Automatic annotation (TrEMBL):
Pfam families: RPE65 (PF03055). This is Putative lignostilbene dioxygenase. Belongs to the carotenoid oxygenase family. Keywords: Dioxygenase, Iron, Metal-binding, Oxidoreductase. It comes from Coniochaeta ligniaria NRRL 30616. Its cofactor is Fe(2+). The keyword Oxidoreductase applies. Fe cation binds at H175, H226, H291, H490. One of its GO terms (biological process) is carotene catabolic process.
């Protein structure tokens, strides 16, 4: 790095933009709190840790209108045991984080555009999208790089995880899937040979970290593949019609641009023993695929794939080439079932033939009882936005902050009965992604607890709300945090018994 005079100016405060104001004001907090205040009671059979990650920029960006999720990954660990709760918060020590701390300023430029950085990074990830527990380590994930490994207890960063050099791809999904029977981790990376490449690398990892199989694919377009799905015999890759163009990036433009002409492609590959030429790209009319709920195969061998589907571009901050983007309040994502015959000659997916809305509410962040992942399931839990529930929008509007979608309730959808139960946390509250905790000793699907971080705009503090799925509409415990945690992305429950294994 040369003289500092060559660097772009570093602002000393966060911009006056919604994504950096109100509840979304970056906190920069690392903390150890040995005992959290509990209202209600934490059932004695709950023993484990809820890990989640949020983007929380350490330094104000020098990029104009930086999106809210370009911040440094900061991990929360909420430990629940013996009816008590404690809390730890640590940043992931990524290369970006460490070098910016040394320089005492932002050095990273635009979201996923290395050509706009103030210095050259080897790995420029923020590790801010998901945190999973695998083979004794926490993996902090963002889809643009390999994971960063962390100590599950201390949240100390161990370093970049390349699986002892086995990782063949430059990238690693933020949504790996875990087979509940075998413990196998199923992953992929897209733009796997670098920015703008259409290469997708699929790999399976044994519970001890040994790579079992790698398949290199070429996708029809260099597009975002955020979440995906796995069944007993198949892997499903949904392509979001946000496309990458290296030339645009070189000119200092965005990594992504919405492409209304691009279909919603779904790639299908055999889960085991597939060859590059075995992938089949099904096509659905242009729309925006969100997060997966689950996937499985029906009696006829068809893939049943449940996900959030929106007609419009949910990532409205990356418009099309003419600058068109929907206004955020017009977005509506619905839990949708897509059924695909993986052996069909007909690659066109149509509303009449293949698509059915399961639950019409505006919803996202679907979670299931992970013991039923990849197999036929009945229960989906998710975040929901229903303005009719009584949110006091005028009261909270001045402190909401912005830049991210809001959900004011948690929902439990029973696919078999078609019924939806709703938990409304209060008129001055919004919810983040929930996790499901199985009840000890019960193998019944969906029998247990739901735990979610809740933003309280009256207190301007964060809370955990714990629900019993057998009495879903009432809260069992509210656990108050002495801090405000801005919008996060994903997290997972890790049972103490699974750590001891
Ligand atoms: Fe995600």
């Amino acid at each position: 790095m040369g003289s500092n005079t060559a660097l772009p100016p570093a602002p000393s405060h966060f911009p006056a933009r919604p994504q950096f104001q109100g509840f979304q004001k970056p906190g920069g907090v690392e903390a150890d709190v040995s005992n959290l205040e509990v209202y209600g009671h934490i059932p004695a059979d709950i023993d484990g840790t809820f890990y989640r990650v949020m983007p929380d920029p350490q330094f104000p960006p020098f990029i104009e209108n930086d999106p809210w999720f370009n911040g440094d990954g900061s991990i929360s660990a909420f430990r629940l045991t013996q009816g008590r709760a404690s809390y730890r918060q640590r940043y992931v020590r990524t290369e970006k984080f460490v070098r910016e701390r040394e320089a005492r300023r932002a050095l990273l430029g635009k979201y996923r555009n290395k050509f706009t950085d103030a210095v050259e990074f080897k790995i420029r990830t923020t590790a801010n999208t998901n945190v999973v527990h695998f083979n004794g380590k926490l993996l902090a994930l963002k889809e643009d790089a390999p994971p960063y490994a962390m100590d599950p207890e201390t949240l100390e960063t161990i370093g970049l995880e390349t699986f002892k050099g086995q990782l063949p791809s430059l990238t690693f999904t933020a949504h790996p899937k875990f087979d509940p029977d075998t413990g196998e981790m199923i992953c992929f990376g897209y733009e796997a040979r670098g920015d703008g490449t259409p290469d997708v690398c699929y790999y399976r990892v044994a519970p001890d970290g040994t790579f079992l199989e790698t398949v290199w694919l070429v996708s029809p377009v260099a597009a975002m593949i955020h979440d995906f799905a796995v069944t007993e015999n198949w892997v499903v890759f949904p392509l979001i019609p946000q496309v990458c163009d290296l030339e645009r990036m070189r000119r200092g433009g965005e990594h992504w641009e919405w492409s209304p002409e691009t279909p919603f492609y779904i790639g299908i590959l055999p889960r085991v023993g597939g060859r590059p030429e075995d992938v089949r790209w099904f096509r659905h009319p242009n729309c925006f695929p969100g997060h997966s709920s689950n996937a499985y195969e029906d009696e006829a061998g068809r893939i049943v794939f449940d996900l959030g589907l929106s007609e419009k571009n949910v990532f409205f901050w990356w418009p099309d080439k003419d600058g068109n983007a929907p206004s955020p309040e017009t977005l509506h994502s619905q839990l949708t079932r897509i059924t695909i015959d993986p052996r069909s000659e007909d690659l066109e997916l149509t509303a009449a033939k293949n698509v059915k809305v399961l639950e019409g509410s505006n919803s996202e962040f679907y979670r299931v009882d992970d013991r039923f992942a990849m197999r036929k399931y009945r229960h989906s839990f998710f975040d929901m936005m229903d303005p009719s529930l009584g949110t006091n929008f005028p009261a909270i509007a001045p402190v909401l902050g912005g830049g991210y979608p809001l959900y004011n309730s948690l929902a439990h959808f029973d696919i078999e009965t078609g019924e939806t139960e709703v938990y409304f946390p209060g008129p001055t509250h919004m919810v983040q992604e929930p996790v499901f905790i199985p009840r000890k000793g019960s193998g019944e699907e969906g029998d247990g607890y739901l735990l979610a971080l809740v933003n309280n705009y009256a207190s301007m503090g964060s809370e955990l709300h714990l629900l019993d799925t057998k009495d879903f509409t009432k809260v069992v415990a509210k656990i108050l945090l002495p801090v405000r945690l801005r919008a996060g992305l994903h997290g997972n429950w890790v049972d103490a018994a699974d750590v001891r294994k």
